[in-house]
Amino acid sequence: MFDWITGAIDSMGLFGVALFMFLENVFPPIPSELIMPLAGFNAARGDMNLITVIIAGSIGSLAGAQLWYEIGRRIGRQRIRALADRHGRWLTVSPDEFDQADHWFERHGGMAVLIGRLIPTVRTFISVPAGIARMGRVHFLLLSGIGTVAWTSLLAVLGYVLEGGYDAVSAWLDPVSTAVVVALIGAYLYRVATYGRRQRRKHPLDA
Question: Where found (predicted)?
Fold first, then answer.
């Protein structure tokens, strides 16, 4: 997996960094915790520029966040909740979990967007409640942008700094990165398989 990601970034350049980060925000196939450090590796080797890597990663990530924001803004709370109720098994998001995210945003507002962009998994979906609440687009992009740039910069710089130990790191990071992706897929399949059981536990009278 390590070699595949670095090879893809090598062949597609900055566009590949932006594309991977966009996809990671729409439906996380490969976590940013792998994408940006590996892009930082490439920058340290002279294949890319660290600043442009951070910019490309941030643009891709923000594009994904903006997509979820627009979905929330256009579809609205009731229709999204109904979607979670109807297709929650495959989305692995139940109406109750959607309500929890919605209430968290209502309590913390803009700080939920700013801090949420720094938290794995949460940052993928925090844009939806912001869109539902019709937070101003400029305000949303500003707060989301601050959190996104901070996160992508941290990960890219870590990869850049560790470049000196590339050979040693790659020896253990390749199986680790593969294990991370397999674990994500496994977690998704587990949530799909146990969705009905979890719902019955929350609403035993409806069973």
Answer: Cell membrane
